[in-house]
Amino acid sequence: MDKETLEHVETLVAMPFRKFLDVAVAWKEEEGVDFSLIDPTKCPVHQYAMRKGRCLDVTGHTELCPVCDNPMCPTCGSHCVDQISRITGYMQAVSGWNAAKKQEFEDRTRYGVPDAGIV
Ligand SMILES: [Zn+2]
Ligand SMILES: [Zn+2]
């Protein structure tokens, strides 16, 4: 990587996460790249999180990346996220479920616990 590119990358990484997302989305639209077809770890948003340092948050939800449509950490943008949910009595990673179980997961109605502040 030459010096100019490196400086540009450093500028991007120095941005707050939400600002970087705006820049990444604008860039994607300009370039017309379909990132949904690319390995999620190649997504610029994930790359940003890897350079910046991932958070180690355990959150109740994930967000979909506006660039590649894969689940991402809402705090740092890392795409190395796993959703954990209860299946037939056991806690398992959703990524290991079969297609039918994943659909069931999608179809489930979720209830928040307003008093505890958990939604
Ligand atoms: Zn992405
Ligand atoms: Zn994170």
Explain this structure to me?
- The chain is of the alpha+beta class and 119 residues long.
- The chain has 2 domains: 3-72, no CATH class; 84-109, no CATH class.
- Helices cover 38% and strands 10% of the residues.
- It has helices at 3-14, 17-31, 44-52, 99-107; strands at 63-64, 71-72, 84-87, 90-93.
- The strands form 2 sheets. A two-stranded antiparallel ribbon has the order 1-2.
- It is elongated, with a radius of gyration of 17 Å.
- The mean pLDDT is 82.
- The structure holds zinc ion (2 copies).
- One zinc ion binds next to helix 3.
State the distance separating the first and last CA atoms. 44 Å
> What's the helix-strand series?
HHHEEEEH
Helix content: 25-40%
Determine the mean pLDDT. Answer: 82
- β-strand percent reads 5-15%
User: What is the strand arrangement across the widest sheet?
Assistant: 1-2
State the major sheet.
Answer: 2 strands, antiparallel
Rg over C-alpha atoms, rounded to the nearest angstrom = 17 Å
Q: Any ligands, ions or cofactors bound here, and which?
A: zinc ion
Shape descriptor: elongated
Count of helix runs: 4
Total number of beta strands: 4
Task: List low-confidence stretches.
Answer: none
Count of discrete structural domains: 2
